[in-house]
Amino acid sequence: MIGAAFGIGFIIGPVLGGLLGQFGPRVPFLAAAALALVNWLYGFFILPESLAPENRRAFDWKRANPIGTLMQLRKYPVISGLIASLVLLYIASHAVQGTWSFYTMEKFGWNEAMVGYSLGFVGIISAIVQAGLIRVLIPWMGQERGVYVGLGFYCIGFILFAFASQTWMMFVFCIPYCLGGIAGPSLQGIISTQVPPNVQGELQGGLTSLVSATAIIGPPLMTGLFSYFTGPAAPVYFAGAAMLAGAVLALLSTLLAFRTFHWKPRQKTRTTT
Q: Where are the alpha helices (DSSP H) in 21-111?
């Protein structure tokens, strides 16, 4: 449901941003600020508390920060490996989020409105996958297999984006890329079952902090690759370099998830003399 809400926002937001961007580069940011204010007002005055009183605990400054949260979560081995897999996936996603407009403008000559429309199309496909297909596919195939299938679709989507040669291909290739959205809910579903009820909020907060942390690494990495391989110093011109890097990171995420699922702690053996 969270993914579906994100998809709906991704339908409206990019289209609105693309249209408003034609009135000036700052206008979309002012609109985003207004929407963020409305969101804050809704959360403060209307949104009810979801955590039951029996699952609450005393506030602790040592755990009220990203580092403290992640240190607490280290005692769950499965979580540590899958969180690392999520981190790689989040960094990979910036190949699309960070370079989509640059890439499509450079390779296909799109304008701001076309970029907005294309991202709106991504939002439509994402909403269909998140709100409809995931409810059917994950119970049918199971969460672990859902992780593999989703990450596989991400790899395929990134590679197809990297080598697309015509505008229509970018729209068609959005389908396998958006099907990769099966991986995120599967991973987070598995992670959430590994902690007790009174740690769920801390877990979600830690995951959100990691998303923000990957936004420090992902954009400069991916835009840097795009800039280098489309610049005069590049050994070969390849506008899809960031997309290909996303595919590599998604593959590494898959391998790490596989290792975590099949990891077994070593048992200590007693030797006698």
A: 27-45, 66-73, 77-108
Positive or negative torsion for Cα 177, 182, 186, 189: positive
Long-range pairs, 2-7, Cβ under 8 A, ≥24: 2/130, 3/126, 3/129, 3/130, 3/131, 3/134, 3/181, 3/184, 3/185, 4/127, 4/130, 4/131, 6/126, 6/130, 7/123, 7/124, 7/125, 7/126, 7/127, 7/128, 7/129, 7/130, 7/131
The DSSP code for 112 is H
Enumerate residues 6+ apart whose C-beta is below 8 A from 197.
52, 55
- Segment 201-218, tens digit of pLDDT: 777 777 778 788 888 999
Task: Write down the pTM of the prediction.
Answer: 0.77
CB-count burial class (<10 Å; 0-12, 13-18, 19+) for 74: exposed
Q: In angstroms, rounded to a whole number, what is the distance separating the alpha carbons of residues 137 and 160?
A: 23
Which residues 6+ apart lie within 8 Å of 157 measured at CB?
Answer: 173, 174, 176, 177, 178, 179, 180
Contact 254, 129 (CB under 8 A): no
CA proximity to 147, closest of 27, 255, 25, 22: 255
Q: What is the C-alpha separation between 132 and 128, in angstroms, rounded?
A: 5
d(CA 211, CA 91): 9
For the record, the structure tokens of 229 come out as 């391989």
Contact 134, 187 (CB under 8 A): no
Over residues 73-94, the pLDDT tens digits come to 666 666 777 888 888 999 999 9
Q: Is residue 155's pLDDT more than 90?
A: yes
Other CB atoms within 10 Å distance of the CB of residue 25: 10
